[in-house]
Design brief:
Structural class: mainly alpha
Strand content: under 5%
Number of helices: 2
Radius of gyration: 31 Å
Number of domains: 1
Shape: rod-shaped
Length: 72
């Protein structure tokens, strides 16, 4: 009788094992995505800084060119 009862739970046990595996896979994927998100945020900050420096440099060059145009 104990064997019949335990076989009734076999599909449930299999499903629980599948859900545990899925949960672990999703946790690993979530961790990887969070790591990627931090990396992309750092890259974005670096690109914004480079863009600001380039903009400042261009404005400086334009200012010097305008000053040269006004010289007699």
């Amino acid at each position: 009788m104990a064997e019949a009862g335990s076989s009734d739970f076999a599909p449930l046990k299999a499903r629980i094992d599948e859900l545990i595996a899925l949960s672990r896979r999703l946790a690993a994927e979530n961790h990887a995505l969070r790591t990627q998100m931090r990396s992309l945020a750092a890259e974005r900050a670096q690109l914004l800084e480079r863009n600001e420096r380039a903009e400042s440099l261009v404005e400086s060059i334009i200012g010097r060119l305008k000053a040269l145009e006004q010289e007699p």
